[in-house]
Automatic annotation (TrEMBL):
This is Acetylornithine aminotransferase. The keyword Amino-acid biosynthesis applies. Pfam families: Aminotran_3 (PF00202). GO terms for biological process: L-arginine biosynthetic process. It comes from Cryobacterium cheniae. Its cofactor is pyridoxal 5'-phosphate.
Length: 397
């Protein structure tokens, strides 16, 4: 480190890291609350939170305590053994999701892995004969592994890696398309309640209820991907709760771990009976360290009522955005603290860079969308700071 210095980290990154992503925007070394610092000591207000991961912000005392305590006690055991934090988290997720007595939880280490597990679950749905089709939506994002890639509705992402697992069809997010595509040959329908990666796109009104009704009628598993929307981010514990429905399966990751890698598949009702012993697993699945951390994250969200805070602060953030009076801002999409600021011009990258120059981290979900996903602990001071910095960014482009 010493002789290579920090000034040439970009060159080091270019030499050492696989070229899977664009060159990084900064080198971050520390975080506290809703702020992070780069290697030169510059402070940024973090309104991306590791893409909806840092629910409690950075270095939250509950997170630090949970990791520190558990890593010194028991970090990992094989799946031949159970551990107290694992069972506590599974029971907590059953309670929070409303999965009820029949619900079950499978743990893994990422969102893509949770969707891989859900994909296998879908293949096991053979009720009433052969179900050869799996449906998901245009522009959907479910992860980068082969199965998750097959589910994702972005052809350009899949194309270099064909063939991907077969049987997946992508349909537009319209009630008509849903109606036309769903029948007894379908094993499962995958949906994100809000399409985060696509640019924070809400489902049409009534879409989830209609999906629930049709899936029930045709014996199709309704599988909701709440990797990005789950754990309080939308102002509900899980976005489907606002619609008054339950899925057959739910995939989670990102915000439930607050920064440690964890994913989960939660099943409801009869879907809990599909996986049989030996059909799936992972070495890290629900190890004590990550599950203890997730318990601390979800326990803090509960104790501090951060779900209500997400709803309340999300409304305030919408008011701030409306009050900017910027001709560049055409609309605000999303819910709670997962918002997409729609732009009238394709300048999201430039605006993100301008925000960064003004000490604010936001994300260009696409060229016409700025995505905001601040930590759920965000308060008055951070919102005021956001307004000031975002105004400066808008004024500078
Ligand atoms: C991020 C994301 C994934 C993939 O999660 P990873 O942890 O990156 O594998 C899947 N689905 C949705 C909706 C996501 O936002």
């Amino acid at each position: 480190m010493a002789d290579s210095g920090t000034h040439d980290w970009r060159a080091r990154f270019g030499d050492a890291m696989m070229r899977t992503i664009a060159p990084p925007l900064a080198m971050l070394v520390r975080g506290e609350g809703c702020y992070v610092w780069d290697e030169e000591g510059t402070k940024y207000l973090d309104f991306l939170a590791g893409i909806a991961v840092n629910s409690l912000g950075h270095a939250h005392p509950a997170l630090v305590a949970a990791v520190t305590d558990q890593v010194g006690r028991l970090a990992h055991v094989s799946n031949y053994f159970a551990s107290p934090p694992q069972l506590e988290l599974a029971e907590r997720l059953k309670r929070l999701t409303g999965a009820g007595q029949a619900g079950r939880v499978y743990f893994c280490s990422s969102g893509a892995e949770a969707n891989e597990a859900a994909f296998k679950l879908a293949r096991l749905n053979t009720s009433g004969g052969r179900r050869t089709r799996i449906l998901s939506l245009h522009d959907s994002f479910h992860g980068r592994t082969m199965g998750a890639l097959a589910l994702s509705g972005k052809p350009a992402m899949r194309e270099p890696f064909l063939p991907v697992p077969g049987g997946v069809e992508h349909i537009p997010a319209t009630l008509e398309a849903l109606d036309a595509a769903l029948d007894d040959t379908v094993a499962a329908l995958f949906l994100e309640p809000v399409q985060g990666e696509a640019g924070v796109i809400d489902l049409p009104d009534g879409f989830l209820q209609q999906a629930r009704e049709l899936c029930t009628r045709h014996g199709v598993l309704l599988i909701l991907d709440e990797v990005q929307t789950g754990a309080g981010r939308t102002g509900e514990w899980f976005a489907y709760q606002r619609e008054g429905i339950l899925p057959d399966a739910l995939t989670l990751a990102k915000g439930i771990g607050g920064g440690l890698p964890i994913g989960a598949l939660v099943t409801f009702g009869a879907a809990s009976e599909l996986f049989q012993r030996g059909q799936h697993g992972s070495t890290y699945a629900g190890n004590p360290l990550v599950t203890a951390t997730a318990n601390a994250v979800l326990g803090t969200i509960e104790a501090d009522d951060l779900v209500a805070n997400a709803a309340h602060r999300g409304e305030q953030l919408r008011q701030i955005l409306a009050g900017l009076g910027s001709p560049l801002v055409s609309e605000v999409r999303g819910r709670g603290l997962l918002l997409g600021v729609g732009l009238t011009e394709p300048v999201a990258q430039r605006l993100t860079a301008a925000a960064q120059s003004n000490g604010l981290i936001v994300n260009a979900a696409n060229e016409y969308t700025i995505r905001l996903a601040p930590p759920l602990i965000v308060g008055d001071a951070e919102l005021a700071d956001f307004e000031r910095r975002f105004r400066l960014a808008l004024a500078s482009i």
